[in-house]
Design brief:
It is a single chain. With 146 residues, this protein is mainly alpha-helical. It contains 9 helices and no strands. The longest helix has 24 residues. It is globular and about 50 Å long. The two termini are 28 Å apart. The model has no long low-confidence stretch (mean pLDDT 90).
Length: 146
């Protein structure tokens, strides 16, 4: 669950580790999805205020805030173009630089309301979890889709 909470690994890293540790999928999958979603509401609600505070403080905090804003802006084109479908795709595709944290960052920077963004991010996390499970179990490879 801790790996699912982390912004770098998220459930994309936690599911393979859990499978390697022989955790049953019926426990692993929901635990990873739920843990991955825990920080999302906090990021959406508080991120803009935290970034503004960091920018006012200057120095390394300002540089960190500027980096996060640039990162979120670079990922936001899909969401700007396709709205909530774009947010879903950003979170659902299990590639580096995507996921719940990035989706929450983009949603916060674009001013999306939590009541709209959280269900979409949740659906994206659930989809990403299924895709990672399928990849780890070899179903997609066996089916010849990759």
């Amino acid at each position: 669950m801790l790996l699912s909470l982390a912004p770098v690994s998220e459930l994309r890293g936690a599911i393979p580790v859990g499978l390697a540790a022989d955790i049953p999928i019926a426990i692993l999958y929901p635990a990873c999805v739920l843990a991955n979603l825990i920080p999302v509401p906090f990021v959406i609600v508080f991120l803009r205020r935290v970034l503004e505070w960091m920018q006012r403080r200057g120095g390394i905090l300002q540089k960190g805030a500027d980096w996060l804003i640039r990162r979120g802006s670079s990922k936001s084109s899909l969401v700007k173009k396709y709205e909530m479908l774009g947010l879903y795709l950003l979170v659902a595709i299990p590639l580096p630089g995507t996921g719940a944290w990035t989706g929450a960052l983009v949603a916060a920077l674009l001013g999306r309301r939590i009541k709209h963004a959280l269900p979409v991010i949740g659906a994206g996390v659930a989809t990403a979890g299924v895709l990672v499970l399928l990849i780890c179990k070899g179903v997609i490879h066996i089916a010849g889709l990759i």
